[in-house]
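pasting for the record
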Amino acid sequence: MLDKIWAIVKKDLITEMRTKELFTSMLTFSILVVVIFSFAFAFSTGLIKLAAPAMLWITFTFAGVLGLSRSFALEKEGNAVLGLLLTPTDRSLIYFGKLISGTIFVFVVGMIIVPMFVIFFNLDFVSTVLPLIPVVLLGSLGYVAVGTLFSAMAVNTRLREVLLPILLFPIIIPLIVSAVKLSSLVLEGKPLSDGYSALQLLIAFDIIFVAACAVVFEYVIEES
């Protein structure tokens, strides 16, 4: 089972290293948004700590959509998705393979966005970046868990780039709210334990939606 999941993850990683489409698009968008925000708040330093968590996750959310929208679009080109369906494996393993590879891409971009915010907004590197690693990881996992399912659903539509965020954003509101709350605590110099309820919600969101989406994915991918 793990070999089959790893084969899908490895395929996605090799494809991305060759084309660099997902990583480049997400990273370029993220840099642009961070630069715009930095100019907008350049003369309002008192508002930075209040606004930075929201700006961080706005950047993260929209950059992630760019990657997710291409996740199954690449499989659809050349009818490669048919090759996945013909493999003698459970459909949920395809989901977990796409989930892991997508989480890697989104997490790496997220961990590039965070230091950029630290640099542009003159925040302390150690006290900001390190505590945010688990928050970004949990946020990436839940975000990609839902996004992978909806990406597979939207791949056959003509307006998949528009449909995906319409489907995705309402579902991930609890995840984003929890992540922003935890990020605010980090920027205020408080431990993550002070946001225990938000951390619980974030973990529960990941567990519930990874399990639920893995079950539903079997029926969604058959229609692709």
